[in-house]
Amino acid sequence: MNAAAQPGNVYLAGAGPGDPNLLTLRVLRLLETADLILPDDLVSAEILAMAHPGAEIIPVGKRCGQPRITQAEIHMLMLEGVQAGRSVLRLKSGDPLIFGRAGEEMTALRGAGIPFEVVPGITSAFAAAARLKTPLTDRSAASKLILATAHHAAGKLELTPKWAGGLADDDTLVIYMPGRKFRALADDLIASGIAAGTTCVAISNATTPDEQIHSTSLVELEDVDVGPAPVILFVGDAIQLSDYNEQSLQDALSLESASNGSSSTSQASK
Question: CB within 8 A of 144, min separation 6: which ones?
């Protein structure tokens, strides 16, 4: 398989959770060779800086319900790029197939007869769990992983996803895009049958220098400032911060950030 972007093709690719070091080699190669790049807002400037100098970059992100471009316009940009004989990289944060609009874009591309490829990326749930140093599944503690979102398309009235029977002791629930009304979200989850004392951890900007972590129980989850979007919420007693509490996690992050800064300074002085 040719790893470079090919003219007349669209690549729906995942840029990972934010840290440029967590890009896949394939996505890096596409960045270096694509003619037209259409990134989401959450794709960092550091990642876009890896694009080759001749690439055209048109941001097509949607943030906080305020899109600056419609989905139909994104489809048109991809179509026009291919018709002009260009290679098109549609770059999404995380993994393109998890809570993105890849399904709509694949439908549009198929309908127009445009060849495309889906290139996976590291989704934020897995990256954030790695930062917490906690497994999402475990042979003795967690046999089920549920990925959900509290963000719905226009016209859907539910605040949060519902499922019958609450959350089993060995389940781990991960909520993408939980919004900012954490208390209402927690009340809704408790009303659906999840125990009030269930552990939950909110993580803002996972894997980036701005990462923030807030751990508590579901009944004590309030509309606290856990940092700016994107935020991901873990719910479940299988989320064990056995080696770290919230303060030690923040201290570890601060030490890591300082260490990285010192390393950069040292390299620059050589």
Answer: 137, 168, 170, 171, 172
Q: Using alpha carbons, select from 160, 176, 154 the residue that is nearest to residue 230.
A: 176
Residue-wise pLDDT for 107-161, tens only, equals 999 999 999 999 999 999 999 999 988 888 887 777 889 999 886 555 554 555 5
pLDDT in tens, 56-111: 999 998 665 555 789 999 999 999 999 999 999 999 999 999 998 999 999 999 99
Q: Distance between CA 172 and CA 141 in Å, rounded?
A: 10
Q: What is the 3-state secondary structure (H, E, C) of the chain?
A: CCCCCCCCCEEEEECECCCHHHCCHHHHHHHHHCCEEEECCCCCHHHHCCCCCCCEECCCCEECCEECCCHHHHHHHHHHHHHCCCCEEEEECECCCCCCCHHHHHHHHHHCCCCEEEECCCCHHHHHHHHHCCCCCECCCECEEEEEECCCCCCCCCCCCCCCCCCCCCEEEEEECCCCCHHHHHHHHHHCCCCCCCEEEEEECCCCCCCEEEEEEHHHCCCCCCCCCCEEEEECCCCCCCCCCHHHHHHHHHHHHHHHHHHHHHHHHC
Token pair for residue 54?
């001749």
Q: Tokens in use for 200?
A: 């939950």
What pTM was computed for the model? 0.83
Q: How far is CA 261 from the centre of its chain?
A: 25
Positions marked catalytic: 40, 62
